[in-house]
Design a protein that fits this description.
Belongs to the allantoicase family. The chain is mainly beta and 339 residues long. The protein is built from three helices and 22 strands.
Length: 339
């Protein structure tokens, strides 16, 4: 059975990348006030946490952005530079752990400022109309604009705390130019739109982390399954940011020393049309891209040349972790297919 990080969340949270993720380079560039909690905290990729006894010089430490109580007219807002220019499909305004200090309402605007951060002359478009917020909850909303944007502005009415702002979108990449130039890119990278669409088990970690930049910082920074106690193996299906021909595959078991997979194999296909739930069943019959390869502890494994057995573009990959275990990062280096 496939799982998502939150099975009650809208489809856009599973189909697109959080472009407000600090790990990808998103930065909170301005806030009218962040007296109680720094604006950068709401861009962290990990879920917000709560420490009952943690305080700092300004009061209770909160994992998110929190302004002081407003005693004048107006409201607070924060401006976020997204990881890269993108189309936005939906947002999650998360008030986790904010119970007596959440804003009663919020809205979101976006702008396109590719040459720097917006100034007073920037043109902002409303993508999420003002909506009510509740205590310690996810608030999902579809984005109502088809434009390409580089920044968002989160308005809270009138003040309070937001644990996380997640802006789900598709990176705006000129794939046709890259295809013409024959440029090699990581087709699976988050910043290029790669995303995990289904998996058999993710007991210890979020599968999407395998496409994050850099190497894992610890054993929790990767995809790790529980110990398999039945025949078969664990698996993960990735949709590439853009279909392409694979030149090189990198599988990194960084920090996984007593729990790395014994072997890994990869299957792939060019999937056209609707990517519905049947993709899980269909993936069992995809072509072999990388035959079973022995894994080692805490090691970068690189495969290219004759080891890659499929030529021609693929759009989806099934990574088989045999029989189970942890993988920190996966890189799929190749040349984008012509759109």
């Amino acid at each position: 059975m496939s799982h998502s990080s939150n099975d009650t969340a809208p489809e856009f949270t599973r189909r697109f990348v959080n472009m407000a993720d600090a790990r990808l380079g998103a930065v909170a560039v301005f806030a009218t006030d962040d007296f109680f909690a720094d604006k950068q905290r709401m861009l962290q990729s990990a879920p917000a946490v709560f420490y009952p006894d943690k305080y700092d010089d300004n009061g209770k430490w909160m994992d998110g952005w929190e302004s002081r109580r407003k005693r004048v007219e107006g409201h607070d807002y924060a401006v976020v530079r997204l990881a890269t220019s993108c189309k936005i499909y939906g947002v999650d305004i998360d008030t986790s752990h904010f119970t007596g200090n959440f804003p009663p309402a919020a809205s979101l605007e976006a702008c396109f400022c590719p040459d720097g951060d917006p100034d007073d002359t920037a043109t902002w478009s409303e993508i999420v109309a003002p909506q009510g917020l509740g205590a310690s909850a996810h608030h999902y909303a579809d984005a109502h604009n088809d434009g390409v944007f580089t920044h968002v502005r989160l308005h809270i009415y009138p003040d309070g705390g937001i644990a996380r702002l997640r802006v789900y979108g598709r990176p705006d990449r000129d794939w046709s130019q890259m295809a013409q130039q024959g440029e090699q890119v990581d087709l699976a990278a988050m910043i290029n739109g790669g995303i995990a669409v289904a998996w058999s088990d993710a007991h210890y970690g979020n599968p999407n982390v395998v496409m994050a930049p850099g190497r894992g910082i610890n054993m929790g920074d990767g995809w790790e399954t529980s110990r398999r106690r039945e025949p078969g193996n664990e698996w993960l299906i990735i949709e590439l940011g853009h279909p392409g021909e694979i030149d090189k595959i990198v599988i990194d078991t960084c920090h996984f020393k007593g729990n790395f997979p014994d072997r890994v194999s990869i299957q792939g296909a060019y999937v056209e049309g609707e990517k519905d739930k049947s993709i899980i069943a269909r993936s069992m019959f995809w072509q072999t891209v990388l035959p079973e390869q022995k894994m080692q502890a805490d090691r970068i494994h690189e495969f290219g040349g004759a080891a890659i057995t499929v030529r021609g573009p693929v759009s989806h990959l099934r990574i088989n972790s045999i029989p189970d275990g942890g993988i920190s990062r996966i890189r799929i280096l190749g040349k984008p297919a012509r759109p």
